[in-house]
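Running low. Got one?
___
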Amino acid sequence: MTTLHVQVFGSGSRPVVALHGVQGHGARFRQLAADYLSDFSVYGLDLRGHGHSSWLPPWTLDQQAEDVLATMDELGLEHADVIGFSFGGLVAVRLARLAPQRVRRLVLLDPAIGLPPHGADQAAQNAMAPPSFADIATAKIVRASSWLTASPERVDEEIAENLMLDPDDGRYRWRFHPPAIVTAYSEMARPAVLPPARIPALMVVAGRANVVQPDYAEACRRAGVRVVELDCGHQLMLEKPDETGALVRDFLSADDVWLRDVTEEDLETLFEQQLDDQANHMAAFSAKNPADWDLFLQRWSRILADEGIEKKAIVHDGRIAGYIVHFEQFGVPSVAYWIAKPLWGRGVATRALRELLSQVTIRPLYARAAADNVGSIRVLQKCGFVITGHDSAFSDARGADVDEVILTLE
């Protein structure tokens, strides 16, 4: 394990660790940081085998992630947002799975994850014989021809940062170690692994690159990753700098409430949250004995197994804040939610419901609440629901009949 060469762009209070692709370097994030992340401190790292970091093996995915973690330790970064481009996206996912408590949000820019083996093999073979140049001018022409949308200044920066003179033969080469690149392509051909479910994640797909495989993009969507496709090639920070920059900025700056699929790992937290007496009283139509773990587990096992129920965990500041469900009740599409009592009155429920409504487009949509549950009714009304009816039913939590209101979103 070693610490990596780092360049810092900006002086904001919130740190971002940026991981480049194969044959790249940390300074490639300079423009993104300057134009769109001025409120952040962006730490551009040279991965092992690249740039000014160590070129010594091992170059495995695990080693790359451990190097990043060690560098964060040295920099005093307890946690950070992490951006990964291409191979850097694969390293970012491994880092997030290795130390999820250290990653606040995850941005994957056309990540090279689960590449087809034949394509990875061909790319690795090409990397074994990298180009060399007789002079700087030739290298500049070659780079400019492959970076057609890059400004001359951007090409000059790349030459200054990433071109080196090889003393053995007097020729110029890009600043990376070919064996490390070959290893990286081997790692990129591993079976695809999803980002951890507990970390908010954005994946920007370069639609014309064919790097992100369609089944992987769909699996990420199902896992709660926000997936956006841009009409460009793989180098999206060069081809679509404004669109890419705005997506990254808006995602990292967004209010930290998001939804993802409920997993079995969440059940213990949800069980503890529903033990609160006042919360059960206000919810009214909850379990008769909320302390019965076996009954709770049976109920949630049925919910998790029912594909007709859309069940989302509400995540706030990286922790489970409750859940929200879309299901059929009394023959009509309905929504319901539960928010941990310490988060009442802080807008978490409203933001979570708005997020669900952006995903669930069926209308009309219905909800029910105890007539005296003013807070829940207010949340629903803020999101466009209106009271359209009244009913009453027996409440196990209160041991009596309870009046309830029916709300509708047209």
Notes: The mean pLDDT is 94. The radius of gyration is 25 Å. Residues 61-75 form the longest helix (15 residues). DSSP finds 15 helices and 16 strands in the chain.
